[in-house]
């Protein structure tokens, strides 16, 4: 399926998806060009990152990205930053694929604990809406980032998508022809943490997760890395 055809179908699906309703209307009168606001730009810079929250029960590093906060549409308007993201994201994927990433994280394990060659990935889609893929260019970049994960498919033991709203479900489902089988590694959960936090806790100790995912209020990541630095 080519990108233009996919986007045509996506628009029709969004228009017919009643649960998305007014908060996802493309021409919302409250929509502003946030690139003009320096405060928002600083916040956007901070959001493009990953962090390692800790380890699961089998000593696999837990890598978290708050994709719901990634304003891809804003990034598209900053060509230098967009290219920097693509470069740093590719380096991150190559680290995962080569095993260098898990080797780097092994130093955070206690003495006597065996390290793992695989990782756990959590993608938090809280606050995600249609404005994040407002144009075909921003949508293509989003899909390209997901497709790159194919390179490290063998290093992902399992993954989780949390806080998936109606649009997130629709986007992931319709994106399957473009991004291959990487989604087979992920369980997708909705916006009710009372349902998915217990499932997270069966695989990952809650003290290894941020408070937003059921962990401690005084949580501090083991490692944090920006894609825009």
TrEMBL record:
Residues 38-221 form the CRAL-TRIO domain. InterPro entries: CRAL-TRIO_dom, SEC14/CRAL-TRIO_domain. It holds the Pfam family CRAL_TRIO. It comes from the Eukaryota. GO terms for cellular component: cytoplasm. This is CRAL-TRIO domain-containing protein.
